[in-house]
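Re: Re: ligand-bound prediction request (bumping)

Still looking for help on this. To restate: I need the protein modeled with zinc ion bound, output as structure tokens. Inputs repeated here so nobody has to scroll up.
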Amino acid sequence: METTLQSLVSHLSTLSCSGCGKQYSPFEKQTVSACCQLPLLAGYNLAKSLSKEVLQKREGTMWRYLEMLPVLHKENIVSLGEGYTPILTLNNLAKKYELRSLQLKDEGQNPTGSFKARGLSMAISKAKEHGVEGCIIPTAGNAGVAMAAYCAKAGMRATVVMPRHTPKAFRDECYWYGAEVVLVDGLINDCAARAKELNSAGELLDVSTLKEPYRIEGKKTMGYEIAEQAIGNCPT
Ligand SMILES: [Zn+2]
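Reply:
Sorry for the wait, this slipped through. Here it is.
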């Protein structure tokens, strides 16, 4: 599919090396920068603004900020309804610690039970957009479960590498989503080394934190939501 900036709903415009600023194509599959081996940061055309009125009518998921997210074509979005989690007011704890007000953004309400859903939904959506057929992740738990769930939704192969001592609930969830689970005697850094070995031919996309540019683009929606909810415009 030929991509022109005008044909897209996303305002994604650049990918830059976080070390030296060198530019990379936002239309091609990228991992870390070739120049510095550092994360690539997405940039957006901010001249095209998104009005508050338009935003208020949107669905209650992180995809309400579509223009400021990197997925170029809507049909590539792999969503399980992540984001737009509620902000709860914790009166009892506030009183106990003599705070004027205490609020909690309840990220446990995301699909797969943690904020990792945001980043993995985004990474797997972009992987789908680039025609990726399988992903791999070293994990201590939550991120592996999230990747397995989104890969299942996308019909992609998933390999999760986790320490053998990871709680059974995380392992079971990965199995249930159809992921290949590799257990390692060691910690998360040993899992990262094993994942590298397993993927030495590079046939899987490594979606470790900051190894591809887009998980962080999912996580940033927490900030957008807090800003929007804090000014009293959250949908009911
Ligand atoms: Zn660089």
